[in-house]
């Protein structure tokens, strides 16, 4: 008979955690506001009227931070990489050709994910610590017919910012590509206008610019991407948990997909509410490119708060 596993000797958390509040100075996780921490301590039913109200508000606030009017804003129980994988698993079908612009570690991860869903990834490594130029991307896009491109807004691994993201996205769109953008590190610390820039999927994590907890992430699909790649899909995506049609049951149809991480969603709600409160803007002007910069959800005083001038030649 195999001996039973005995109770391990465990040191209580109080003896592990330092006394002082943790001041984390990295890109994320970042310290969370008290309201976010309090929300994260609550568990409610994952379905029902209360949760539905919370979800509707999370989506509305998500539309604000992504600057989109799309009805396909949703969360995912998992890290930023899960949101990344959800975007790719639903928008890249086997055999699709995808141009992956790589500036470093995280943008390379999207190429790995494309290969795993049996897409054909062509990687462009942007040399040095340069940001990707529109000319470079356009040149490559004109050589072959691609179905999608992936790129990062801010590459945390080396601080490179693709500050021509808006122009690259529009150019790729014009050439018929879906545009998938990793804004895990940059959302709500830098301007991003999903609809105006014609982006088809934006991915973010909770633990960086939004100042929420890690483990519940947010993404948005454009109406166009949803209609073209998700609504009409006949073969099943490889990942059940990340299937956007199934996730839509929870995020848009008040029904069950998997048991949602309720506490993390409540925390995300509070974090988004604070972003909205800090950057109030008349709703009519939010989505226009002429809106004054101070009205956009760009700068979080307690989060990773870097600013790259977008109109200069600066790459970092
Ligand atoms: C730009 C970028 N993309 C993706 C990720 C992956 O996020 P996660 O670690 O939450 O999976 C990170 C994490 O640091 C990141 O900085």
Question: How would you describe this protein?
Answer:
There is one protein chain. The chain is α/β, with parallel strands linked by helices and 316 residues long. Helix content is 35%, strand content 13%. The chain contains eleven helices and nine strands. Helix 3 packs across helix 10 (262-278) and helix 6 runs parallel beside helix 7 (165-174). It binds pyridoxal-5'-phosphate (PLP). The site of pyridoxal-5'-phosphate has 12 residues, from helix 4.
Instruction: Write the element-wise H/E pattern from the N-terminal end onward.
Output: HHHEHEHEHEEEHEEEHHHH
Beta content comes to 5-15%
Number of strands: 9
What overall geometry do the principal axes of the alpha carbons give? Answer: globular
State the separation between the terminal residues, measured CA to CA: 62 Å
Tell me the strand order in the biggest sheet: 1-9-8-7-4-2-3
> Mean pLDDT, as a whole number?
90
Helix segment count? 11
Q: Give helix % range.
A: 25-40%
Point out poorly predicted stretches: 282-316
Which structural class matches the secondary elements? alpha/beta
Radius of gyration: 20 Å
Largest sheet: 7 strands, mixed
Which molecules are bound in this entry?
pyridoxal-5'-phosphate
């Amino acid at each position: 008979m195999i001996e039973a596993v005995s109770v391990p000797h465990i040191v209580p958390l109080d003896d592990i955690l330092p006394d002082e509040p943790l001041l984390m100075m990295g890109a994320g996780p970042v310290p969370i506001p008290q309201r976010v921490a309090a929300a994260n301590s609550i568990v409610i039913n994952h379905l029902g009227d209360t949760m539905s109200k919370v979800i509707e508000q999370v989506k509305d606030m998500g539309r604000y931070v992504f600057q989109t009017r799309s009805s396909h804003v949703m969360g995912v129980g998992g890290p930023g990489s899960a949101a990344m994988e959800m975007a790719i698993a639903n928008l890249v079908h086997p055999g699709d050709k995808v141009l992956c612009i790589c500036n470093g570690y995280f943008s390379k991860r999207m190429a790995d994910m494309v290969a795993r869903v049996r897409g054909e990834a062509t990687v462009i490594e942007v040399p040095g610590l340069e940001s990707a130029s529109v000319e470079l991307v356009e040149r490559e896009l004109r050589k072959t017919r691609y179905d999608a491109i992936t790129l990062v807004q801010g590459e945390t691994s080396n601080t490179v910012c693709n500050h021509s993201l808006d122009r690259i996205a529009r150019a790729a769109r014009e050439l018929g590509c879906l545009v998938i953008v990793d804004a895990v590190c940059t959302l709500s610390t830098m301007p991003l206008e999903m609809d105006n820039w014609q982006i088809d999927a934006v991915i973010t994590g909770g633990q960086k610019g939004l100042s929420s907890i890690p483990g519940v992430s947010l993404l948005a699909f454009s109406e166009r991407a949803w209609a073209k790649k998700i609504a009409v899909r006949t073969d099943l995506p490889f990942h059940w948990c990340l299937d956007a049609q199934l996730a839509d049951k929870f995020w848009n149809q008040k029904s069950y997909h998997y048991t949602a991480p309720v506490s993390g969603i409540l925390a995300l709600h509070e974090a988004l509410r604070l972003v909205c409160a800090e950057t109030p803007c008349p709703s009519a002007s939010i989505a226009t490119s002429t809106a004054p910069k101070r009205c956009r959800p760009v700068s979080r005083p307690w989060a990773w708060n870097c600013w790259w001038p977008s109109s200069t030649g600066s790459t970092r």
